[in-house]
Amino acid sequence: MTTQRVMAIVGAGHVGGRAAQTLRETGWRGGIALIGTERHLPYERPSLSKGLLTGERAAAQCGLREPEAWREDDIEHVVATVQSFDPAARTLHLGDGRTIEYEALLLATGGHVRRLSIPGASEPGVQCLRTLDDAAAIGERLTPRSHIVVVGGGFIGLEVTASARALGCEVTVVEGGPRLMGRAVPAAIAASAQDLHARNGVTIRLNTAPRSFERRDDGTLAVRLEAGEVLNADSVIVGIGIEPADELARVAGLEVERGIVVDEALQTSARGVYAAGDVAVFPSRFGAHRIRQETWHNAETQARVAARNMLGARDAYRELPWFWSDQYDHQLQVAGEPMLGSRSIVRTLDSGAQIHFDQDGEGRLVGASGFGLASALAREMRLARMLVERGAPIGGAQLANPEVKLKSLL
């Protein structure tokens, strides 16, 4: 490790990698220390629950860049844990005893996967999905006719479910809530997604959760549900979300609120320390409240803004929240913050896909949620995102009428 002050990034995932790349592209010629606990170079996560499981993509194809690009940019990938940092002294302390002096620091620590605290949760074959290594381990278990229980009816759980069905597995989804995908999408879209999975042979159990996992003599798992039912499983995949990895910031005295609180420039409460990605709690573009986003788009765009601001800019992060989920041949997209809406307008497309537009009390578009065949939805949702981005009041009749082209409303 060099002794000069470097640009330090804690977290060598998507955010950390893209920020390191942007530092070089923006003109920083000093040292860059990209510190993470995984042996892998930075990679993107969307394929972990989809193409990587089905074999359509290889692990190498998930990489954020080619391996030689990191070497050519002289970005030092440090595989280590960070024990603590001192914002006043601008020093990082690694678990192996090393100390790094930094010019500016980016916390891109992401999140810790939530785990069940019930009997049998640590049994072999009960797995979570967060990393490349997790995906590799799960992929080995997704064999034709194997019985898979997916705990959690959110986006990750449903994407894994679709991948497992594509590989010929028998799948049961167990969701503790009354519907799939919680409050992240309108109830009608959740119902359509449930119907899609049912048509693809998935068994869905709502309003119940596992009580225990027990190993049988034949090596399979008995999944005992709160409702009393016992499911048979060869493997259990737990997808119940993540907790923001904000412990370093908390110990260092930064403002933390279920994530690391940042301003519009993504700077934390400590000068010269920034945070981005899954761990960052940032100002909403729709009001005075703060939000946290666990999405590819958020990682990609915040990384670039944070890197420029580490170099002295004061760019404000004003990107519209947006994410997508691929399930079978269907796609779900959500743009903006639909939960801020007080009125919903449904637009049904010729293909049967639907877009739900959400308006606030002043008629301003604050969100759009779409679900349907990916081939039919993509273009319309691109236009819907642009409409939400502009936030102008639009008549509900125009939004609902498929004869009125969305492009004409821009």
Protein model, in words:
This protein has 10 helices and 25 strands. Strands 1, 2, 3, 4, 5, 6 and 18 form a 7-stranded mixed sheet that branches. It has a 5-stranded parallel sheet with strand order 8-15-9-10-11, with helices on one face. Strand 24 and strand 25 form a beta hairpin. Helix 1 packs parallel to helix 8. It is globular. InterPro entries: FAD-oxidoreductase/Apoptosis (IPR050446), FAD/NAD-bd_sf (IPR036188), FAD/NAD-binding_dom (IPR023753), FAD/NAD-linked_Rdtase_dimer_sf (IPR016156), Reductase_C (IPR028202).
Quick structural overview:
The protein has helices spanning about 15-25, 50-55, 65-70, 130-140, 155-165, 185-200, 245-250, 295-310, 375-390, 395-400; strands at about 5-10, 30-35, 75-80, 80-85, 90-95, 100-105, 110-115, 125-130, 145-150, 170-175, 205, 210-215, 220-225, 230-235, 235-240, 240-245, 260, 275, 280-285, 290, 320-325, 330-335, 345-350, 355-360, 365-375. It is an alpha/beta fold and about 400 residues long. A hairpin with a 4-residue loop joins β4 (about 80-85) and β5.
